[in-house]
Design brief:
Layout (H helix, E strand, L loop, with lengths): L18 H10 L9 E4 L4 E4 L5 E3 L14 H7 L33 H40 L4 H16 L8 H15 L6 H7 L4 H15 L12 H8 L3 H13 L11 H15 L6 H8 L3 H14 L7
Antiparallel strand pairs: 1-2, 2-3
The chain binds a DNA duplex through helix 12.
Length: 326
DNA sequence: ATGGTTTTTACTGCGTC
DNA sequence: GACGCGGTAAAAACCAT
């Protein structure tokens, strides 16, 4: 879905043309036949040459009132100029509303047969409209997912997964009451974890437009409702990124991985934040391999406090004492 | 809502460059 | 003196109940 760029621009905002400008521009327009002056005939939506009568443009939209009006009251009633269309409305304000009252245009009551008919029309009209709303919703969400994913440097397949999750959430009606942003973020968060390239909540928070609490709440909700199975993130999955962001070498990563493996069964990992463990492992490994870095630096790229790194890395080293790694 | 656990914040002292 | 590091206490956040 990467190449699906929206090619169809909805509507270029049309420059408003005041009647005066139209008059003026018409003056300058020459008739292609006889070279005479072309004037616009608003009443019929045509542009006509005043000399030879050639109709130059006949498909203009006539924005004028429907009939001639002789006084202001009549003008109000007969004008067909309504609310301007706007891109703020997803359908440009052009969708149809079918009145709930069972009356015809003259205010007369409809008979039973007509009422049933109208009821059916209402139903379908509503169905089409909500389908449109979902499409629009999806479009926005996918854009959002794309934006966040690239900000976090997440690969293509994660975006795929995220959009699948989002689609499912949408089709199971999980959206009402929740923000598009929030669900999109939750979907991406889940997708990243499933793909083995997790991003911490802090990172998600920095690229998302919704705040942490909503992300977690929505995330839990989505996971539960869709029965997504997400294992707790493995600290090792954070290693490559932390290491590379610090510009450390391959053996640091290997050593860190060794430390994590060596301590895996010791109950050290459970209940602790995976990022914290990973950060600590990297720091410890940097000591072991003499590729120095500082706790502060590691903490920064992993968004973890130095205190946590200190606590974790001491545990890592003492527990893995017996089994020297490399 | 509550309590237990983990993480963060803020502050301190020590040693080194 | 700035910096990296270690430690502590209290606050905040998180999670299961």
């Amino acid at each position: 879905m990467s190449e699906t760029r929206t090619t169809a621009r909805v509507h270029e905002t049309e420059a408003r043309v005041t009647p005066e400008e139209r008059e003026r521009s018409d003056e300058t327009n020459a008739c292609p036949e006889c070279g005479g002056r072309v004037v616009s005939d608003e009443e019929h939506g045509e542009s006509v040459c005043s000399d030879c009568g050639l109709v130059v443009e006949d498909d203009e939209i006539d924005r004028g009132p429907e009939w001639r009006a002789f006084d202001s009251g009549e003008r109000d009633r007969k004008s067909r100029v309504g609310t301007p269309t706007s891109n703020m409305m997803h359908d440009q304000g052009l969708s149809t509303d079918i009145d709930w009252q069972n009356k015809d245009a003259y205010g007369n009551r409809l008979n039973a047969r007509q009422r049933r008919r109208m009821q059916r029309l209402r139903t379908w009209n509503e169905r089409f409209r909500t389908r449109d709303a979902k499409e629009r919703n999806l479009k926005q969400a996918l854009g959002e997912i794309d934006r966040m994913a690239s900000a976090l440097g997440l690969p293509e397949n994660v975006r795929e997964t995220a959009s699948v999750i989002y689609r499912r959430a949408l089709s199971e009606d999980l959206l009402p009451g929740r923000s598009i942003e929030g669900v999109a973020t939750a979907a991406l968060y889940a997708a990243a974890r499933q793909a083995g390239t997790p991003r911490s909540l802090d990172e998600m928070e920095t690229v998302s437009r919704v705040e942490r609490m909503e992300i977690t709440r929505t995330y839990r909700y989505v996971i539960r409702e869709l029965d997504l199975e997400v294992r707790p993130a493995d600290p090792e999955e954070y290693l490559p990124r932390i290491v590379s962001e610090l510009g450390l070498g391959e053996d640091v990563e290997r050593t860190a991985r060794g430390l994590l493996d060596a301590t895996r069964g010791e109950g050290l990992h459970s209940g602790k934040s995976p990022v914290g463990l990973a950060a600590a492992a990297v720091y410890a490994a940097s000591l072991l391999t003499n590729e120095r870095t500082t706790q502060t630096e590691v903490g920064e790229v992993a968004t973890i406090s130095e205190v946590t790194i200190r606590n974790r890395y001491k545990e890592l080293l003492t527990v893995s004492e017996g089994a020297p790694t490399v």
